[in-house]
Amino acid sequence: MEEKIKEILQEKGELFGLEEEEILQIREALLTKGINAKQLIESFKNESLIDKINKVNEELKSNEPTNVSVDTFTKYTGYKPQYVVDAMNKHLGVGQWGFCEVQNQLKEGEKTTVITKVEAWVGNTDNKFTAWGGAMVTRGSVSDAMKSAQTDALKKALSYFSVGYRAYRGLLKK
Questions:
Q1: Residue of 24, 25, 37, 95 with fewest CB within 10 Å of its CB?
Q2: Are 57 and 163 in contact (CB under 8 A)?
Q3: What secondary structure, in 3-state letters, does 53-79 show?
């Protein structure tokens, strides 16, 4: 069964231009969630969902560099969260994707950090991935750090669906 999942992911991974390491990460996430090859095949039969995700990525790319931000601490580039949300709403439709915050922690220390876990779904609530995000508290604003950690986790969870793939491949330029 694991070999069939690997075969399917490699075939579909090429469609999205995924690297071998990314395919292995997705495979591991699917196996951890207990998704079998039959479920995976069914999810790929809905090519319209793949087309919609491709349109989201096309829109994100077409708005570069306006929609690109640079993290002041890590210097990583990424898409501004509202652009991702707007593109998802436009191409998938409100209610055809979403997320839920599962966990939120405040880690105090030399640099106080908020760590958030979200579960994002696309198409239907059976197509979901969980991811972590984090943000440092700056200027004493815990609420801003909570929002940043949540959108960081959301963008990471959506990346498992290949949303915003250019950011995670380091292809963005400010």
A1: 95
A2: yes
A3: HHHHHHHHHHCCCCCEEECCCCCCEEE
